[in-house]
Amino acid sequence: MDWIQILSNTVESILSPVTFAFVLASLGLAMHFGFAGLLNFGIAGFMAIGAYGYAISVLRFDLPWWGGMLVSIAAAIVFAILLGAPTLRLRGDYLAIVTIAAAEIARLLFLTNTFDDFTGSASGLFGYHDSFRAANPIPEGTYGFGPFTYSETDWWVRIFALAVLAVVIWLLWALSRSPWGRVIKGIREDEDAVRALGKNVFAYKMQALIIGGVFGAMGGVVYALPSAVNPTVYVTSLTFFIWTALLLGGAATVFGPVLGSIIFWVLQAFLTNVLPALAQEGGILESLTSQQASTLRFILVGIGLMLIVIYRPQGIAGDKRELTFVK
Amino acid sequence: MQLSKTRKRAVSVIAALFAAIMLLLALPVSATADEVGTEFDDRVFGNVKLDGESLGGVEITVRGNGYEASTVTGDDGRWVIGVPERGAYEVILNEETLPPGIAVVEDGGPIKQIEFGLTGTVVTNYFIGEGERTAVGLWPQFFTRLVYGINFGLMLALASVGLSLVFGTTKLSNFAHAEMVTLGAVVALFFASLDINPFLGIILAVAVSGFAGFAQDVVIWRPLRRKGLGIVQLMIVSIGLALTMRYVFQFFIGGSTSQLPSLGGESFKLFGTLTLSTTDIASMGISIVVLIAFALWLTMTKTGKATRAISDNIDLAAASGIDVDRVIRYVWITASALAGLGGILWAYFRPGIKWDMGEKILLLIFAAVVLGGLGTAFGALIGALIVGIMVETSTLILAPDIKYVGALIVLIGVLLVKPTGLLGTKERIG
């Protein structure tokens, strides 16, 4: 077994755009669930809207890359308002079912042949990179060291994603310790108490939903930046994986989602490389096909999610005193 | 079919209108002319000819395995439809698009059942000549869809009443319930591979599903109830369980679609385009019998009454001497066995067993349960029938690949307008 290669692939996943997309989306969920107590199970829908919003406006309406991103953000705001206006008064688990259904509706509408001219239906969208790559200030060539050796395009995607990430982390951190953030956390702990203080609970929840939704949409954009928009990505499983990453790190923290997403993807990358190798070269997994061996890692995600929620609901970085699971 | 002249005209006007609407809806599809689904490797194709002359503009639809695509033949009479996987499909030729007086003249009419063999292509051709058409006007189509919808709704009902009971007694929105649907089908597939009598295999599979429900309660849910986990935490645990089970299924049966052995029997052409096989009819019969038995259990037996008492008020039920844990255990067994049976029937209805088949209908199950009223078993039954019929009949107006959207919109709408559902009692849920 080529351990050097496996470890190199594993370490490489730290700087992968998919990891960054996960971090962004789980930061959005942290805003929704961790800080405001909103059970949003439609984060994959926000990501889909971000990705499609960007790709469609660049491909079909010839907008520049930054215009596409603005469209994504606007679309996420509209989606959040549509979703939130009627549902934010519902009890937690009802909100979960509504958001998961809304995300599924969005995905099916992106997938259907009916809007093929815009969405590319089952084949998705690709070839929208020219404008973004043209803005790349890095001269042509290959840079970096070890596993982190990329072309100028790959670096541009990563640097841009890191910049977005930095802004989002700063924003979440600043918001969470602002007066606004304290009201939001108050709503999470006891909605009625905050209402009794004369705050407009609905408006605060809506603001939280919009801000988190925009983070999620930027996650979708970052996911789409290096390659293509593929409708099979934005399924409910994606939502569940992001929840796993969030709860692993700690929902009611700023650092937790970052940590959780990175751990999630480093583990995924490690298992993706190691399990098929174990199956091929004998050892404990000898009797498995490599397909079966790589399915094992998703089984582990499911078991991991159960164990986290039961035994450490506050996550790695969380504080047990912060009630993230309101009864 | 003898129709008076005026009625015939009316029917053809309706049919033409309908065809126009369908054409309008199908426009983005037919814009690509005679080939659709070219992103897939596996193809169904054919050549529509009348007495050696190629026929253009004939509409062909391929449906099955949750996939549906239509195309219109080119001037050379050719059509190609790509499909996502090798499996069993239904190929339908729309006779309305044939020249006047021309119809499909072979047994089975314009609908053919095809199945992929070892290669990635299937040729499907029709014998076309002068003859009497199978009517595919609006009403026959609607009627066909209605019957399919009832069939689908009954299967959904088997899955939904269980979810509703579990919610009623434990307040758990169980996202892993759809995996019990898959489990039934997968276990039936396992028994089929042992070459035992298929009917015995189905009964055993239902028994295994029931046992899985029992095991779930003993290993996971009862300890967690004791631990006092909140409803949100329990819900996320069920999501974790759903992910685990789903990928365990994939681990064992892979990513492809498998088939249960045919139960024999034949197809009956009943009305217009409505063709039902013995299996379809038997499956509807089984669903109805089982659902009635379930209803009797719930209303007549002591355990059934205790179940409803717990759904109404758990503390009061416990105080009046009901063994809550025991009843909840029965609820888990019943719910899982019913879901498993639903999965087996569904595998016959939409031919094929796939590791994520349950996930595909999870939200429809939720829609049925919510529509009927969370926690009310009879509500779930009615909700499931409505959702099933709605999903199937909506394809008359909507493109088939967004037929679930309607049901999901209803799900959201009901939660907003009347969160207690059709049969639910008033409760503060805001």
Describe what you observe in this structure.
- Chain A has 327 residues and is an all-alpha fold.
- Chain A has one domain (3-130, 148-311): Orthogonal Bundle (ABC transporter involved in vitamin B12 uptake, BtuC), CATH 1.10.3470.
- Helices cover 70% and strands 2% of the residues of chain A.
- Chain A contains 14 helices and two strands; from the N terminus they run H-H-H-H-H-H-H-E-E-H-H-H-H-H-H-H.
- A two-stranded antiparallel sheet of chain A has the order 1-2.
- Chain B is an alpha+beta fold and 430 residues long.
- Chain B folds into two domains: 31-134, Immunoglobulin-like, CATH 2.60.40; 141-417, ABC transporter involved in vitamin B12 uptake, BtuC.
- In chain B, 57% of the residues lie in helices and 14% in strands.
- Chain B is built from twelve helices and 14 strands.
- Chain B has helices spanning 5-30, 138-170, 177-193, 198-227, 231-253, 278-300, 302-312, 314-319, 324-349, 357-372, 377-393, 403-417; strands spanning 35-36, 42-47, 49-50, 53-54, 59-64, 67-72, 78-83, 88-93, 102-104, 111-115, 121-123, 128-130, 267-271, 274-277.
- In chain B, helix 2 crosses helix 10 (357-372).
- The longest helix of chain B has 33 residues, at 138-170.
- The radius of gyration of chain B is 24 Å and the shape is elongated.
- Residues 1-8 and 17-33 of chain B have low confidence and may be disordered.
- At the A-B interface, helix 5, helix 12 and helix 14 of A face helix 1, helix 4, helix 5, helix 10 and helix 12 of B.
Chain pair with largest interface: A-B, 53 and 54 residues
Estimated structural class of chain A: mainly alpha
Provide the CATH top-level class of the largest domain in chain B. Answer: Mainly Alpha
- Portion of residues in helices of chain A? 55-70%
Oligomer state equals: heterodimer
Radius of gyration of chain A: 20 Å
- On the 0 to 100 scale, the average pLDDT of chain A is 88
Main sheet attributes: strand count, strand direction, barrel closure of chain A = 2 strands, antiparallel
Q: CATH top level of chain A?
A: Mainly Alpha
Low-confidence stretches of chain B: 1-8, 17-33
How far the N terminus sits from the C terminus of chain B, by CA atoms, comes to: 56 Å
